[in-house]
Specification:
The protein has one helix and three strands, in the order βαββ. The chain has one helix spanning 17-31; strands at 4-13, 35-48, 51-64. A hairpin with a 2-residue loop joins strand 2 (35-48) and strand 3 (51-64). The two termini are 16 Å apart.
């Protein structure tokens, strides 16, 4: 029986929300194993002088917990 867990991360990019999501997932893959999906919780942007300077996404990343080795 598989048990999953969810963790939240925030990604940022100067290119767009998709790039911010990809960067967040890439970074999560360095720490978490068995990632099976994610949900975009929110999209925000930092604005300076009337222009978007940074896109930010908050993700809930779902991953399967490993069985403890006996």
């Amino acid at each position: 029986m598989a048990i999953s867990s969810v963790t939240e991360v925030i990604g940022a990019s100067s290119k767009g929300w998709q790039d911010a999501s990809e960067k967040a997932l890439e970074r999560a893959n360095q720490t978490l194993r068995n990632i099976v999906g994610f949900e975009v919780v929110s999209e925000k942007a930092k604005v300076e002088n009337g222009k978007i300077r940074e896109y930010r996404v908050q993700l809930k990343i779902t991953f399967i917990l490993e069985d403890k080795k006996k």
